[in-house]
C-alpha cells in the first residue's frame, strides 16, 4: 500500500503530501470550476449509486448501513475496473480521495480510504 491514503473536501486547498488527487463523487461539486479542482482523476464510477446516495442523505445515524451497502456495491463486477484503478494508485503513490460532502468522516471517501487501506479489492 501507499505511504498514505487520505480523504478531504475538494474545496480545501491541496496539500503537499496529497499525491494523486481523485474525486470520488458521482456528480460534479457545486461552485467548483474544473481548473480550480487540482484533480488528477475523476472516478465517478466508484461513487455510491444514486439510489444509495438518496437513501443515505448524509444522515450519520444511517452511516453503518450505508457503509455495508456501499461495500456491497463496490464488489459488483461492473465496478471492478475503476476499483482496480484506485487500488493500483494506492499501491504506488500517496492518494487523496476528494468529495464535496461536508461531513467527510461519514462519506464514501472515508469508506473507500478504509477499504483501500484494508487491501481491497
From TrEMBL:
Name the record gives this protein: DUF488 family protein
Pfam family, one: DUF488-N3i
Source superkingdom: Bacteria
Record-linked InterPro entries: YeaO-like
